Amino acid sequence: MHKRSVISAGALLLATSMTLTACGTRGGDSGGGSEGGGDSGDKVAKIGVIAPLSGDLSALGKGIENSVDLAIKQANEEGGIEGWTLEIAPEDDQANPDVGKNAASKLAGDKDVVGVVGTLNSSVAGTVAPVLDTAKIVQVSPANTGVSLTKGEDAENPSRPYANYFRTCTTDAVQGPFAARYLYEEAGIKKVATIHDKKAYGQGLVESFTEEFEKLGGEIVAAETINPDDDKYDAVVTSVKAKKPDAVYYGGEYPQAGPLSQQMKAQGLKVPLMGGDGIFSPEFIKLAGKTSNGDLATSIGAPTEKLESAQAFVDAYEGGGYSDDYEAYGAQSYDAANAIIEALKVSLKDAETAEDARQATIDAMADVTFDGATGKVAFDEFGDTTTRVLTAYEVKDGEWTDVNTEEFK
């Protein structure tokens, strides 16, 4: 298998040209986010977080929450918005669309809430975004990759469904083809079996991967699905193994991907499993075990720890006393929170209450642009990030190792 470690000129320019100012002392694990804020006479504006803070995906959810908490603490310590103190309002969606909808309704009913960072899952965003849109609360996701959230269901005639919705991550329309190109052009793999978990994220990822892989000349030898509530995948593995693929592309998340990889190898299907950012977590390696070496994943952006623009974020997070890692979406969550804060600097200036500033915050978000942890933060006419850098990772010696970073074109 041919592998390389490349950061394209475009990605290098993004990585090296961005700077971030580190601030003060960070205290506590996901506190109120208001320490070091203004005087006691300040008005309060809350930034909500909707993410899985419990359950199988809580590692990713806590990384999102903590990164938002850090951004809020820094803004308060710097006196970012005169007359206002920012607070965090986290809600656990349990990676469940119905629970997420309830969380969104709760935040919408709080007159101090003026923005929300989240969600992790595209399927949860499908129920959250309309609630927040109706309440005129800006939403910025660090992780949703479902294309329809910003461009609607008709790919040929894109139309933005929610004026309040933005994201700091790339979409399946970019990530799936990026993975296909890596497998076909860099790894030299021509025959792939696909498996997805029937959820919006996994299905969308497999569809975009398949289209690009076949366009390149690759062959999809099997297309299977699993039930995300199951933990035994013998039948699917047996079916896929009979088709003799050179790799398996999985659309879904690490709680299922890890056991699937382990069971593939145990049944003699000793080929790489590749997935999207939903499997890019140390938790995948724990679940997949020692046979996960050689497995692959793509994730949004360049490796956080290698971005010059992210070093202040990494240092501040590590010094912040958080018990959980920032995980795959920490830097994107930090940038999402800071995007809201930048918009609030405009919308709260003359507002009497946070609720009064909701629509103005949405309006201001369209013009937000700044140098963030992940590079240049800005949004296009659909609310999508203008940054299209992605990275392919491989499990080597029990750790994710970046093997290719490029700006997708």
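The above is record 1. Record 2 follows with the same two-line structure.
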Amino acid sequence: MTEKKMSPLRQRMIKDMRIHGMGDKHQKSHIRAIKDFAAFLGRSPDAATPEDLRAYQLYMTDAGVTPSTFNTRIVALRFFFGMPCGREEMKRYMQFRTEPRKLPVVFSVEEVSDILMAAPGPVLKYRAALSISYGADLRAAEVCNLEIGDIDNERLLIHVELGKGQKDRKVILSPGLLELLRACWRETRPEGWLFPGKPKINPISPRRLNQAFTSAMRNIDIFRRGQKPMSRAPPREQAA
């Protein structure tokens, strides 16, 4: 839509978003949210009342809008009323929704062993990556970002750089896991990243590691119906 076809209100909102430093994707998300609110009202959204906001939030709840989408729209509405409209008091009538938390699936030691043995090819690479996530309690992104120099084979430590909370930390490396990493190194001969992707100048992605974990679970027939892939490898007991 060209600037000539935009309403003054929309033009002002776009300018405020640019001043705020929002990227194009974020701006489009905000615009979509305000359009949805305007469609619900049937009139210009800047004339909304507190009762309109309450009604819209009830409408989204009854319509089964997911908490993430609900909150995305609330963020957009808070910006809209706070900046372009200059109606800060309207924020008092908007509430965020909490997303229900599900308990993580906990595997037995036998299931963990089966998962690691069922890792897809290249087998040693993914078995080692999943084992290090499991045995050292690392997130998928932390595993993928490991470099060869992060493995201290003398002190049996793994250096995790900018992990959770953007902090460095050291975790214990078991002798059994060290031997597996050595076998993986002899097979793949990585030069920088401990688990290189394609091309080798990049590490494997957390998504690819998660896919390998899911594939291993399917291979041993313990992928439960309706269960989502885990964002990290199995629980904390020491890998064999």
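Confidence is low (pLDDT under 50) at residues 224-240.
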